[in-house]
Design brief:
Strand content: 5-15%
CATH class of the largest domain: Alpha Beta
Structural class: alpha/beta
CATH superfamily of the largest domain: Aldolase class I
Low-confidence stretches: none
CATH topology of the largest domain: TIM Barrel
Number of helices: 17
Distance between the termini: 29 Å
Length: about 450
C-alpha cells in the first residue's frame, strides 16, 4: 500500500526530482512516481497495490490517516518523503508502527535516499529505497532493469484522480514523455536522481495521452525537464495528436532555444497552452559556473514574444541566492525577468542537493514546510535577505505585469496567510495529533 500524507501545507511531492516543492496555491498535483509504481506492481499476478492519497481524498488529516492505515490490510506500506515534510513523514511512520505493531514500512524518494544512513540508525523503518521507485518496483516484479519504454501507462483509476485540479478547477493529470535532461546543469536534482536522459517511445506516449483523455483529463502536464529536446520526435507526437483529433490542453517545460515557429504552430494546434522554461540567473558568469546554458537573452525575448503572439502562455523560473550572488547580481536577475517578460514568473531560493557527506546528514538539514535547506549557501547574502528579494521581486513583477490589486491579494495577503499557517503548524512541534486538531478547528 502506498500512502501520500497531508500536513496542512500543499506539497507537489514529485517536483524537484522527487524532493518535493511547497506550493502557494490551491493546485493539487498527482504524485506520478507513486501511481507509476503501483501500476507496475499490479501487473504482477500475485501483487495488489493500492494508494491512499490524503490529497485526493479531501485532504485527510494525519490522525485520521493513522487510524485508516491501522485498520487496513496490507503486507508492506510505502511512504515517499519530501524535504519539506520529512520530519512529519518520519513521525507519521512512527505513529503508524505504534498503531500497527510489526507492520513493514518502506520509505522512498530522494530525501529518504539522502538520509538513508540516519534513518537506518535512528528509526525502525524497515527499508529505504535509494533509486527512483518505479525502477525499483519494476526490477522487483520483472527481475530486470526497466527503461522508460518498459513502464506501463499510469493507472489513474487507482486514485480519485478528478481531485487533481489546477487553480481554475480543471482536471490536470501528469505524464512523462521523457525523463532527466541532457543539459547537465550542475545544480539539477533531476539529473542527480534519474541519471541519463531517456525519451519514451512516441507510440507509448500517445497511448498514455489517449488513456488520460478518455478518463476526462482537461489538462495534461508533461513532467519532462526538456520536452522539445528532440524536435522531430515532438513534431511526430503533435501531428499524430492532430490527426487523431485528440482534444486536450497541455503544458510542457523546455529550453526556449529549441523552439522554432513551425514547431510551435504544430504544438499549438495539438493543444499546447503553456510553456515553462528556466532562465535561472541574469548573470552570465554565474550561469557559466554551473554549466547552465539557457540560451541568449535576445533569443529568449524573441521566443516569449512569439509564443505570446500565438496565444501561448509562458512561465519562467529564476533562482535567487546562488553562492556567488550579490545584491547587484540578484537585481540583474530581476531586470532580466522584466526584459524577457513572461506571463508568469517563479523566483526560487537556491538550494543545493549535492551533499558531500550523506552519512552525516540528519533531517535537520531540511527546512520544514519550505523550499530550502538549513545550509547557508551565499557568501554575500543571508537567507533573510534572499527571501526578502524573492518576495519583493514577486510582488513587483505581479504589480507591473498584472495589477497592484493582484499583487496585494496573492503576493501579500496569500503569502502572509501561508506564513501564518506554517507558524501555527511549527508550534505543534511535530505532534501530529495536535496538528490535526489545530487544522480541524481552523476549518
Amino acid at each position: 500500500m502506498f500512502v501520500r500524507p497531508y500536513y496542512g501545507v500543499n506539497i507537489h511531492t514529485d517536483a524537484q526530482g522527487e524532493y518535493g516543492s511547497v506550493l502557494h496555491s490551491n493546485d493539487v498535483f498527482p504524485d506520478l512516481p507513486v501511481i507509476n509504481s503501483a501500476t507496475i506492481l499490479n501487473t504482477a499476478e500475485n501483487i495488489q497495490a493500492v494508494i491512499l492519497d490524503a490529497y485526493a481524498e479531501g485532504r485527510i488529516l494525519p490522525d485520521e490517516l493513522i487510524r485508516r492505515v491501522s485498520e487496513m490490510t496490507f503486507d508492506k506500506l510505502v511512504i515517499k518523503t519530501t524535504t519539506a515534510t520529512v520530519k512529519s513523514d518520519l513521525e507519521l511512520i512512527r505513529q503508524i508502527k505504534l498503531a500497527r505493531p510489526g507492520c513493514y514500512v518502506i520509505t522512498a524518494g530522494q530525501t529518504s535516499a539522502d538520509l538513508k544512513t540516519w534513518i537506518t540508525a535512528n528509526t525502525d523503518i524497515d527499508q529505504v529505497i535509494t533509486e527512483p521507485m518505479d525502477k525499483y518496483f519494476y526490477r522487483l516484479v520483472y527481475g530486470t532493469d526497466g527503461t522508460i519504454d518498459d513502464m506501463p501507462t499510469p493507472d489513474y483509476t487507482l486514485v480519485n484522480y478528478k481531485a487533481y485540479t489546477d487553480d481554475s478547477g480543471r482536471v490536470r493529470l501528469t505524464l512523462l514523455a521523457s525523463r532527466s535532461c541532457p543539459m547537465k546543469c550542475s545544480y539539477c536534482p533531476y539529473i542527480k536522481y534519474y541519471g541519463d536522459y531517456e525519451p519514451r517511445d512516441t507510440d507509448k506516449v500517445l497511448d498514455d495521452v489517449r488513456t488520460l483523455v478518455s478518463l476526462g483529463a482537461e489538462v495534461i502536464q508533461f513532467r519532462d525537464q526538456f520536452f522539445t529536446c528532440n524536435k522531430d520526435r515532438i513534431r511526430d507526437l503533435c501531428q499524430r495528436m492532430i490527426d487523431e483529433n485528440i482534444k486536450v490542453s497541455w503544458i510542457c517545460e523546455t529550453k526556449l532555444s529549441s523552439l522554432d515557429e513551425d514547431l510551435v504552430d504544430l504544438m499549438k494546434k495539438a493543444g499546447l497552452m503553456l510553456v515553462c522554461f528556466g532562465v535561472e540567473s541574469g548573470n552570465t558568469e554565474i550561469l557559466e559556473a554551473y554549466n547552465s546554458n539557457k540560451g541568449e537573452l535576445s533569443d529568449q525575448i524573441a521566443k516569449v514574444k512569439m509564443l505570446r503572439d500565438k496565444g501561448i502562455l509562458t512561465m519562467a523560473f529564476y533562482i535567487i541566492g546562488f553562492p556567488e550572488d550579490t545584491w547587484e547580481s540578484v537585481y540583474d536577475t530581476y531586470k532580466c525577468a522584466e526584459t524577457i517578460g513572461s506571463d508568469i514568473v517563479n523566483f526560487n531560493e537556491y538550494t543545493t542537493f549535492y551533499f558531500e557527506d550523506k552519512d552525516s546528514l540528519t533531517p535537520d538539514v531540511f527546512c520544514q514546510f519550505a523550499n530550502s535547506t538549513n545550509i547557508d549557501m551565499s557568501a554575500s547574502l543571508s537567507r533573510e535577505e534572499i527571501r526578502y528579494a524573492i518576495d519583493l521581486f514577486s510582488t513587483m513583477y505581479t504589480a507591473g505585469h498584472d495589477c497592484l490589486e493582484k499583487a496585494y491579494t496573492y503576493n501579500h495577503k496569500l503569502m502572509n496567510a501561508y506564513k501564518e499557517n506554517v507558524r501555527r503548524i511549527l508550534m505543534c512541534d511535530n505532534d501530529l495529533y495536535r496538528l490535526s486538531e489545530m487544522l480541524r478547528d481552523r476549518t
